[in-house]
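Troubleshooting log. The previous structure file for this entry was overwritten by mistake, so regenerating from the original sequence record. Sequence copied from the archived sheet and checked twice against the printout by T.R.
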Amino acid sequence: MRSGGYDDGRGALVATARHGAGAACFRPPAPPVVPLAPQPRPAHVPLAPAQERMWHAARLGRSADWNVARAMRIQGAPVDVAALRAALEHLVARHEPLRTRYPVTGNGPAQVVADPAGIELDVAERVVDEDELPQAVAEPAAQAFDLTRDLPVRARIFVLGPDDVVLVLVVHHISVDGRSMGPLIRDLITAYLACRTGTAPQWAPLPVSYTDYTLWKHAQLGEFTDEWSRATHQLRYWANALAGRPALLDLPAREPQSPPVDPAAGVLLPVGFDARTHAGLLRLAQDGRASLFMVLQAAFAVTVGAFARSGDVTVATAVSGRDHRLLDDLVGNFSDDVLMRVRLDRAGDVGELIDQVRRVALAAYAHPDTPNPRLKRCLLQDAALPLFQATLILQRAESPRATGTEPAPAQGLSITELPTGVVRAKHDLEFALTDHYDQHGAPAGIDGSFLYPLARFDEETAARFVAHFHAVAGLLADGYRGPLSALLATAGRRRSVSAARRAARVLV
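Regenerated output below.
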């Protein structure tokens, strides 16, 4: 069977097939065997697939929503501010995305990497007292970048005393992802310790650059104009998988505020599951040949479906995109969102739901490289509507719970992270969770936060959503495996976690 596609005149990519003698099921083309290695730079370096959504959001005036800000308080030893400035310069010279601009060209948006010798970093120093500190930290974190002109990084150094300094580092998400923060902070500390002694940091050279990665990724994917390319195959998959879904979930939003509230101003609510619930969810995952994430995503879909009164919900998660060992120490944006359409109306019981979510998640992981703006043009929906409204991300804690962040080689320095005071909600419902394990590998609990836009939901509605998610997860952890209708009914009532567990003992 030869598979192709056509545009139906409304922007939707529709799959077709031509059958003949000895027809076989279509298999996606294997990606070209292209080594990831340093290579010559072409005149035009396109955006990586993971960067396109941030670039288009910035063009629509939402650049500041994608700021990634970290505030680090450095104490315990006299802080050499001049060495800290020099360390930032070394850091930007080492990692290309920190000195990349993203202008519009005749060939579309491009990555233009600045020569480290010719850049002027946006770094400022200021003496503040403790009362001034929260506002001082928030200001640079909330300030937008013009990606076409600005370098996507700024730093502010707030001096409270000779051995008490706060460094605020703000980078646009187009140039970093969550996993970038580890190597970025590590390299910054290494550079500072070297600069404090008047020497250059002794880093191991990076095996490839982010530009090398971008060119390698595009060589793997091929062109959308080629119907047999991997890029076209992935786009065709998503266009078919999402066809006919509800374009917008009917969530219980609050009435418009007067005066209008900033649509991206967000509020964080803490979320946590104890070790007992964690262990119960892991048992369900093992029974269903699934992962903990898939079980949590199933509980999340049930809760979203109950709130939206819909049996067809699309939720999302992020994939790391670092699918090669040479990318581990790079700073850059490799992650992107993948969608999972969950048909609650086609799952009779918990087992069927977990199996469906497992299959949908694995298919999503296999098709991670379709930029959201391009996919929107292939779906029968208003392009102004979001591709998804609800997202859940689960990450593994790197070590047993710790109370501070103090690098071993910091030579007497204590480095702790401070809140920036800036919370931006890019979607309606966002869960960011981390699962923890003790030194023996036993489940130690799950914690994180729920982020929602204040303009969309009031506090009571947001708290109710979190309670419903707790209730559904508690039922699953306590062994409920019956009809899905009972889970939906549980999510539709106002229950606490303890009430959900009492219900589980009755339902099982």
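Residues 1-25, 400-409, 494-508 have pLDDT under 50 and may be disordered. Archived copy saved in two places this time.
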